[in-house]
Design brief:
The chain is mostly helical and 90 residues long. The chain contains four helices and no strands. The chain has helices at 2-22, 25-37, 42-48, 73-79. Pfam families: DUF6587 (PF20228).
Length: 90
């Protein structure tokens, strides 16, 4: 009995960790909103799912008001180039 309860707790923690890390941000915001409507603390759920607590107010601007400008496209593309050199004689 105790072993099953411990396994359930471990699996639940693993699911929460995976949800907070690998789900898309929009899904995480929806989960936080749903849990908040069920009575959970918005600040705790936002911290658990790694979203801003104000993302559930419906303003639709989450993540768009960062103070840091995006890097130029040329700088990003320059890092992703894979150079291929042909070997002579093959």
């Amino acid at each position: 009995m105790w072993q099953e309860a411990i396994v359930v707790c471990i699996v639940a923690a693993a699911v929460l960790h995976a949800a907070g890390k690998y789900l898309p941000a929009a899904w995480r915001r929806r989960i936080v909103a749903a849990l908040t409507r069920c009575g959970a603390s918005e600040a705790r759920m936002a911290a658990l799912f790694k979203t801003a607590p104000s993302c559930t107010d419906g303003c639709a601007s989450c993540g768009s008001c960062s103070s840091e400008p995006a890097p130029p496209l040329e700088a990003v593309d320059a890092k992703r180039v894979i150079k291929v050199h042909a070997r002579p004689g093959k």
